[in-house]
Amino acid sequence: MPAVVIIGAQWGDEGKGKATDLLAEHIDYVVKFNGGNNAGHTVVIGNEKYALHLLPSGILTPGVIPVISNGVVIDLEVLFHEIEALNARGIDTSRLRVSANAHVITSYNVTVDKVSERFLGKRAIGTTGRGIGPTYADKINRVGIRIQDLFDESILRQKVEAALVAKNNLLTKVYNRAAIKVDEVVAELLSYAERIRPMVADTALELYEAIDGGKTVLFEGGQATMLDVDHGTYPFVTSSNSTAGGASTGSGIGPGEFKTVIGIVKAYTTRVGAGPFPTELFDASGEFLRATGFEFGTTTGRPRRCGWYDAPIARYSARINGVTDFVLTKLDVLTGLKEIPVCVAYEVDGKRFDEMPVSQTDFHHAKPVYETYPGWDEDITGCRTFEDLPKNAQDYVLMLERISGARISAIGVGPGRDAIVVRHDMLAGK
User: Is residue 427 assigned to a domain?
Assistant: First the structure.
């Protein structure tokens, strides 16, 4: 299986980093294909915890080549801060490849993001304010700055000037902010040129040659299915395609190369930011999940909204992404619960929906239809085989497998790198 995609199957924060790291020792390349530093992965190795935002998780595995491909938007200050932090901890980052076609998050993109979100007031989307959306908007409007532009000062200046015509009118006439100076932006961007030059490559060609040569390439998606700009809970979504299809457009690798799609789901559900969330809990159960699962954003520190497992969402993700395998994470968080509700359908105005309603209005008003299953008290963090799990935990996993649209091939039972139960070899396709 030379090309494997890992995607979040809920609203993000499912534990993609851990799943990527689990497989990284078997692969040659790990590719980040969408998003920017508006999301993060936390990977625990021994007693060390690593919070990654722009860098692919595979950078922690010796010998693996990490790639930031064309579908990513890059804040250069954040990128080098993250590289320096890893270098200071003895992690080798010299293997990193960066696509010449990736777009750059400029300082004016960050400014526009923050002021426009505040301007929306109660209609705010819940962005992280890191310039992601405005950078993707510039990309689509064909006024974006790409990594390769840093190596041609004349072209860079022309592009910054063109972008700031509209931006400065918006900032001064609508938001009552000071205009941004072209010279300052150009100088800031040029200051990174020689630092990033050794990392820049034709990543699409390199990845094609790697796959053609029989090497295994893992594509990890930022955010998740329900935040995809086309298939998520629009408009409360991210600005890129975080579904499996985005791996092709975001890397330059043809769709026929992708045979294995691994969807990551938590044993419950969380989301950050605004938007509908049918199983959201506002009681002690929600606080239990948040506290026990330490549900706070890797990048933002924001407390995550918590709810029970949502099977219609899992089935939707399985269908949209062509999921071949699920990895179920944070099963250990449910330990100690006497009963565990699972959303199996929705009710909207007295009508039952077994699948996601196509209408945003219906989904906003959807009420979960729950079935309840017995919990367990045994500590499962030391379990390494499915048979090690308590009977009720096994039954819970098997029940989720039946109603989620794909097999559950691995189960996270703790925060550690090795705290996982593997049921099927996902890379072998068995």
Answer: no
Q: Comparing C-alpha atoms, which of 113, 101, 86 is closest to residue 167?
A: 113
Cα–Cα distance measured from residue 250 to residue 255, given in angstroms and rounded to the nearest whole number: 11
Residues 264 and 387 in one domain: yes
Catalytic residue among 21, 41, 53, 103: 41
138 is known as an active-site residue: no
pLDDT tens profile 95-145:
999 999 999 999 999 998 888 777 666 665 666 678 999 999 999 999 999
**Residue 230 known to be catalytic:** no
Q: Which of 173, 197, 221 is the last residue of a domain?
A: 197
Model pLDDT for residues 51-89, shown as the tens digit of each residue: 788 998 888 888 899 999 999 999 999 999 999 999 999
Q: What is the mean pLDDT of residues 187-199?
A: 97
Range of the domain at 266: 3-92+202-422
In the chain, the largest separation of any two C-alpha atoms, in whole Å, equals 67
Q: Which residues of 372-382 are buried (b: 16+ CB within 10 A; e: fewer)?
A: ebebbeeebee
